[in-house]
Design a protein that fits this description.
alpha+beta, 2 domains, five-stranded mixed beta barrel, 6 helices, 31% helix
């Protein structure tokens, strides 16, 4: 996905704990609150159609906005309306951003001034992970899915390229919001994969769950 427009300085932000969007990945969302319906309507009027996904911060920063500093902006690429006025949308991850400050205004949803500096790589081509031991990773993943009694399409996982595999699992697996934030902030794909492996291994050892592997 190449950069086809200038990234705006101010974007709407959707604070949602545990929801992770990564560049070149897709996140389905269910929009039903009036303020976020207004956010979607306004986003669709802009050429960029961007919405910034950012997690609330349990430890608010000095500016007191209660948001993590780093989020990821997605372009609305699909949307459909249900009969009762809700929307099912898909955000395609464009680039991470750093929150500069929250912008006050008349919108019912939150907006932030953001900086894209340092995340130029996000708007480029797919990343590769040269140090990826795929066989060992899939074995670890199989143990994790068995322990959690989860089902998946293993054939699709095997066929997915490195970035799609790592990013999809980072988004989909049930980790704590702070762990999701660590996956988001990983500077490159190999670091994200290493973080993901650490989280999976931690869970298999018992982690903060009641499931302790024998």
């Amino acid at each position: 996905m190449g950069k086809t427009f200038d990234m705006p300085d101010v974007i709407a932000v959707f604070p949602l704990p545990g929801a992770l969007l990564l560049p070149r990945s897709r996140l389905p969302l269910h929009i039903f609150e009036p303020r976020y319906l207004a956010m979607l309507e306004d986003a669709l009027k802009t050429p960029e159609r961007l919405i910034g996904m950012v997690q609330p911060n349990a430890i608010p920063g000095r500016d007191g906005n209660g948001l993590h500093q780093i989020g990821c902006a997605g372009r609305v690429t699909q949307f459909s309306e249900t009969e009762d006025g809700r929307y099912l949308i898909t955000l395609s991850g464009m680039s991470r951003f750093r929150v500069v400050r929250e912008v006050t205004g008349f919108t019912p949803y939150r907006r932030c001034e953001v900086s894209w500096t340092g995340f130029e790589r996000d708007l480029g081509r797919d990343e590769s992970d040269k140090g990826f031991d795929r066989e060992a990773f899939m074995n670890l993943l199989s143990r994790y899915f068995t322990a959690r009694e989860l089902q998946t399409d293993w054939e699709s996982l095997q066929e997915a390229d490195d970035e799609l595999l790592i990013n999809s699992l980072s988004m989909l697996l049930d980790f704590d919001p702070e762990d999701k934030q660590a996956l988001l902030e990983a500077p490159c794909l190999s670091t994200r994969r290493e973080t993901l492996v650490t989280l999976i291994e931690y869970s298999l050892r018992g982690g903060n769950t009641e499931e302790i592997m024998q």
